Here is the input.
Amino acid sequence: MTTINEQLSTTTLLRFATAGSVDDGKSTLVGRLLHDSKSILTDQLEAVEAASLKRGQEAPDLALLTDGLRAEREQGITIDVAYRYFATTRRRFILADTPGHVQYTRNMVTGASTAELAVVLVDARNGVVEQTRRHAAVAALLRVPHVVLAVNKMDLVEYAEPVFAAIAEEFTAYAASLGVPEITAIPISALVGDNVVEPSAHMDWYGGPTVLEHLESVPVSHDLADCPGRFPVQYVIRPQTAELPDYRGYAGQIASGALRVGEAVTVLPSGRTSTVTGIDVLGDPTDIAWAPQSVTVTLADDLDISRGDMIAPSAAAPRTTQDVEATVCHVADQPLVVGQRVLLKHTTRTVKAIVKDIPSRLTLDDLSQHPDPGQLVANDIGRVLVRTAEPLALDAYADSRRTGSFLLIDPADGTTLAAGMAGDSFAAPDAVAEIDDDGWDF
Here is the structure.
């Protein structure tokens, strides 16, 4: 007889994020999903019931299952990203409940950056609003492959099909224009549970899946395995013992693609070549390993390789560059300005860099570009040109979300300044003109 643990070990994992305007019911949807799928503990439900009674509510407020901060509970809003894990017999899930306020755009970027699916909620009474378009734009910018439009509070519009159809048509047209590859619209009522886990008895005109059914069945085509092989070295293993006097292994996690024994590889940024002679996964030798496995790799040649170097198949090795053009979301309270010295962290490599130019800031409301803003402040999304002190093996974000992303860090105190996506965004800016700097000269 198969145990629950054995069933879960064979199921796939889906990372998804929720987003939407204030009071659209994001946290309530997540709470309903956890409650109706029996993914919460008894003491958690009792704590929610007690907190709800204290606020004068007779029924438990399921939004409190994700609104964990005291300020969130007191104000009835979501401020920070709340991560929750749950599982069914068909799939495991990691969900990120993200805030709806404009000033928390950076939080949504954080939650959606690793998501394979985004659930965008819309209040059926209000339809597609400015914040809805903003969240769709962020999902498109982050290359989230699947988007679900959850038209919530259908019980407040008498479960009217024309209301749902009009909202679904408007949103689908907008999201498709941004390049979102797949959009699924589902009419729900998170408060009473219609079409969240169980099919609704009030909307017989809808024949599609419930939210949970779609989450369980949507294809999870991890682009990691489809991309060229990328292996950032995290640690060099040299036991130098009597049994292994000359052993030199390179440990880390395969970021994308695969590595094979006997394959010709190139080490970047040096450009030196060798051949893979061995791959160990959890101490056991194997002929091939895929992302995101953690492995130890040995090579035929004794090369000078250290943390931060990238090992890639020679047939599909990335180009190295010191000029990084990217779209960034600024997440720090202090602004990012032209000429600022920063650290750029890409996979396991961290190098000195300087912000050469900020050619434009993106207005998510209408996707227009504000030219030459001079700086980016918290929650801004804009184009930057960064010059690095050393070459980086950076892929385009459109090709690989893992090896096309990076962080800009304050070298003074280690604060994360911005999250970057290399290459073109969905709204390509004009060509960036390089400017002189009076700081680090690379």
Observations:
- Confidence is low (pLDDT under 50) at residues 1-9, 69-79, 427-442.
- The first strand starts at residue 12 and ends at 20.
- The first helix runs from residue 4 to 9.
- The two ends are 63 Å apart (CA to CA).
